[in-house]
Amino acid sequence: MKSLFRRLRAAKSAPTLSSDQCDALARSLPFLARLAPDRRTRLHALVARFLDEKTITPLQGLALDPQQHLQLAGLACLPLLEFGAEGLHGWRQVLVYPGAFRVRRRHHDEDTGVVAEWTEDLTGEAWDQGPLVLSWDDIQAELAEPEAGFQLVVHEMAHKIDILDGAMDGTPPLPAAWQRQWARDFQAAYDAFCARVDAGEDTAIDAYAAEAPEEFFAVASEYHFSAPALLAREMPAVAGHLQRFYGESPIPGG
């Protein structure tokens, strides 16, 4: 009986995509054809697991069909091709708005006692232990120009991977030696980039990367999957780490 339960659990833990679903995914994300066959196989396994484990909830009247669910899952799983399914841990839901959404913020300064409240319009958000929140219009706009340097789903998934070690700081879980090298190289690139932004320079990389180390990692991740050649020209050390971490990008442009 125990053996039967183990087999049942193993079967449940390994969902698969049908051939029709694989074909639909390829149609919705044509650049996946550039992935090596073994990486496409890994992506299919990750997408099947994503669809099995995550609840995709459209909001404000948005309706998403099964092919659109596949497309979203495919984008979310691209950053996990080398890292693996561990990147899906700790959350269960994807909330999808039709377009940009408004959130209310509140901050209490413990030193002064001052409470500040404000609203922000966002296209995406990744809660530490909560859902992935996305704007469908922005996802589609970026897919229309896949080499333009923007990839919202990858950005938010980078945050989900980043937090797995307990701190959202721009350094994902890595072996100790690589983590030290990553932290050194990313910090140097981040400091240099912030200095350029603070000086008012026009930068080839989106200036939002200067907001914080975690945003620098997430924005750089977008460029890896949308304009890797540009990232390699602008930040070769960062590009090298991301090439190792994510594997070869299926987008050659930039």
Automatic annotation (TrEMBL):
Instruction: List, alphabetically, the InterPro entries matched.
Output: MetalloPept_cat_dom_sf (IPR024079), MtfA_fam (IPR010384), MtfA_N (IPR042252)
Taxonomically, the superkingdom here is Bacteria
Pfam families from the xrefs?
Peptidase_M90
What are the GO cellular component annotations? cytosol
Name of this chain's protein? Zinc-dependent peptidase
Source organism per entry reads: Arenimonas donghaensis DSM 18148 = HO3-R19
Q: Please name the GO terms that the record assigns under molecular function.
A: aminopeptidase activity; metallopeptidase activity
